[in-house]
Amino acid sequence: MMDDFMRILVQLGADLWKEFVYILPYLAVGVLIEAIIRTFKWHVKIRKVLVRLGPWAIPAAALLGVVSPLCACATLPLVISLLMAGVPLAPAVALLVTSPIMSPSSYSMISGMLGIEWATLILVSAIFLGLFAGYLTLFLRPYGFSEEIVFKEKLPVGDFHDPDYPVESLRCECGQQLSHRVDRCTHNKFLVFVARFWEGSLKIGKFVLIGLVVEVVALSFISVEWMTSLLSHGGILQTLLIMGATIPMHLPQVTAASMLYGFYLPDPGQTIALAKGPGIALLIGGPVTALPVMAVLYSMFHKRVLALYLVLCVTGTMLLALFWQTLSA
Hints:
With 329 residues, the chain is mainly alpha-helical.
């Protein structure tokens, strides 16, 4: 009995290691790009322009979301600070929707695991969903969705980076990160870059490993044929089933992509039989409905804001899934 258990563990470990080694170069490329962006603070410079862009703020926010290395949980405090700085709710929502779907590391890793076609498809879908969410929020602005009245109560004035900022859920802990400590001590860009690369490797690698572990364990109990059949058929029922399953899950983009890669285990350059509908539902529906984000929206904003966010995310994801599925039929 114990021998069988150890043999299963060894096999699971070997499968996990094999899959992780394959995706490691794509992880490194994505983390490298994000470390460069964070070191030179390009996303921060673009973000500051949002306040002055007027009608162009929504497409700019959607584009910023797909190049920003921030995840959904890190984007929400940024969105709230932008609202407090006078940015309208519409571009803020566009940024909040697109940021968890796509980033440089996500594009690199999806390209390596699922193919460049899927990476480009998710990139285009992320921009569309950001525009869809932003402009629909702009249309609803006169009906209780202006930035002045969406908060349950007025937030204290101050800097989220201040360790004494009174709202703990918005208080930024970035000052304690290794890269910030290195910057304060050395002011050396190269050392800061190395520190940011290390931080990114740990953060993104963690989510990749979670996806691979879930996939490896799941395939020990679930038939591979059943799982791939569910993902390979693009019917409305399969798409709705996966969309409904992703809403209560905290499923970052690279975790979802790692799970899908493990289910198919394609050879380099091989096209996987992943249907567009279920694929979009998992790769977009999962990241945009992150539970921590919805919890903050519920606690700080009026309930109608959370309802709007969920409707935009679910409706937009289903429209994209049905569109791409119909187009590929």
